[in-house]
Amino acid sequence: MASSATETETVRALHILIKHEGSRRKASWKDPDGRVISATTRADAAARLADLRDQILSGRANFADLAARHSDCSSARRGGDLGTFGRRQMQKPFEDATFALKVGEMSDTVDTDSGVHIILRTA
């Protein structure tokens, strides 16, 4: 049985993750004890991401540079690059948002169990 194009489609994306008090894992490479994360509200995390997104959209900052400095994901060391992935490899809200973007487009904030993200589809 042949699989449909949507089942075999892959994407590549960069992302910036800001964890908060509701995140499933309250630790990161920047905050190993989770003190800052546990004191961060979801609204604060989203506001930080909105500011970073504005910096990128205005041309004042580069997505990968901001990811390297601000993302709570270990992908920060790669400028937020998650590499190539297909369906059912990421949390559903993240997957849906990434696949909905055109190459070169950046998402609004996306909530997952990990925290709040902005996503830049690169392929």
TrEMBL record:
<keyword id="KW-0697">Rotamase</keyword>
<dbReference type="InterPro" id="IPR046357">
    <property type="entry name" value="PPIase_dom_sf"/>
</dbReference>
<dbReference type="GO" id="GO:0003755">
    <property type="term" value="F:peptidyl-prolyl cis-trans isomerase activity"/>
</dbReference>
<dbReference type="Pfam" id="PF00639">
    <property type="entry name" value="Rotamase"/>
</dbReference>
<comment type="similarity">
    <text>Belongs to the PpiC/parvulin rotamase family.</text>
</comment>
<feature type="domain" description="PpiC">
    <location>
        <begin position="8"/>
        <end position="123"/>
    </location>
</feature>
<dbReference type="InterPro" id="IPR051370">
    <property type="entry name" value="PPIase_Pin1"/>
</dbReference>
<dbReference type="InterPro" id="IPR000297">
    <property type="entry name" value="PPIase_PpiC"/>
</dbReference>
<dbReference type="GO" id="GO:0005634">
    <property type="term" value="C:nucleus"/>
</dbReference>
<dbReference type="InterPro" id="IPR023058">
    <property type="entry name" value="PPIase_PpiC_CS"/>
</dbReference>
<comment type="function">
    <text>Prolyl cis/trans isomerase with specificity for phospho-Ser-Pro bonds.</text>
</comment>
<protein>
    <recommendedName>
        <fullName>Peptidyl-prolyl cis-trans isomerase</fullName>
        <ecNumber>5.2.1.8</ecNumber>
    </recommendedName>
</protein>
<dbReference type="GO" id="GO:0005829">
    <property type="term" value="C:cytosol"/>
</dbReference>
<keyword id="KW-0413">Isomerase</keyword>
